Predict the 3D structure of the following.
Amino acid sequence: MIGRLFPPHHTTTDKAHGRLEIRQIWTSTELTAYLTFPHAAQVFCIQRHTTQIVSEKTRTETVYGVTSLGPEKADPVRLLQLSRGHWTIENRLHYVRDVVFDEDRCRVRKGNGPQMMASLRNLAISLLRMAGARYIAPALRACSRLGRGVLRFIGLPVRL
């Protein structure tokens, strides 16, 4: 393990959802000269040590990354925050697409259809969030009752 050779540059500990999670990050600018990634400014390694509180089952995950953000824009604390924030975005979008739109059971599977449907779902979610909807499912039900008035709801002029 890297932690035995070098101390981590930053560590966080969170206890939630029945588990204890310790995250450690190591960053370096020394390796960027060896990379063929354009604009690579830093490399990093994140280790997540997760312990289920009840069962005491443990899991360790190591993730490596490259970023164009230099240490002056993203120190180890910020990189760890950005990594955590990524999953917030993922969960906010994909959970809604899976649960509210039941995307996994969609039968559109040929050509550009799946990508178009995903884009339309993303557009609907984004428009509803921009209109101030906190919860997508009730906002969709409200939109279905508005008929053509839904265009006004999202800020488009409507001629009746």
